[in-house]
Design brief:
This protein is of the alpha+beta class. It has two helices and three strands, in the order ααβββ. The protein has a three-stranded mixed sheet, with no helix packed on it.
């Protein structure tokens, strides 16, 4: 009787050695991939922290730049106030000049003042404060601007506050 006997437990066979080698190789590869994943996560976290830090620095630099741009306007307003007891005509002229300076600064920052007088009312660009009859204007036309709009399209800081013409 020629029967094959199963191997004893713990006895090594050529197939068993190959299986153990495969398992060891796979465990090594899993450890390597786990290490790579942990390193990638750490690098991503470091990049996120660096980006947050750089973004904060850029915001601070832009805040400083814009504030520095406004200083001449503030200086000129202070000069106008210092001459408050002087001739009212000269103060009005000075305030007009400072207003022009401020409007120009806002334009340079990318938000030009919009001239909406006589334009058709557009709810995307205008906020109606009221209506009034106006024989010289078509109904739905801006006949008075109470507050100017600054900016264009998606870069609009605020809509114009306007009075709109209506039928009599």
């Amino acid at each position: 009787m020629n029967s094959e006997r199963p191997g004893r437990p713990g006895a090594s066979t050529p197939a068993g050695d190959a299986d153990q080698a495969d398992v060891a190789a796979l465990e090594s590869r899993v450890a390597e991939l786990t290490d790579q994943r942990l390193r990638a996560l750490a690098e991503l976290d470091n990049a996120r922290k660096r980006f947050d830090r750089e973004l904060g620095q850029a915001r601070e630099q832009e805040r400083i730049r814009v504030s520095r741009e406004w200083l001449p306007v503030v200086d000129n307003l202070e000069r106008a106030l210092a001459h408050a007891g002087a001739n009212p005509e000269s103060i009005i002229g000075g305030l007009e000049a400072v207003t022009g300076q401020a409007v120009e600064l806002v334009r340079r920052l990318g938000f030009p003042r919009q001239d909406d007088l006589g334009e058709p009312f557009d709810p995307a660009r205008h906020e109606a404060a009221g209506t009034r009859p106006d024989a010289d204007a078509a109904p739905g036309t801006v006949v008075e601007v109470l507050q100017s709009a600054y900016g264009v399209g998606d870069q609009q800081l605020r809509p114009a506050l306007v009075i709109v013409a209506k039928d009599d």
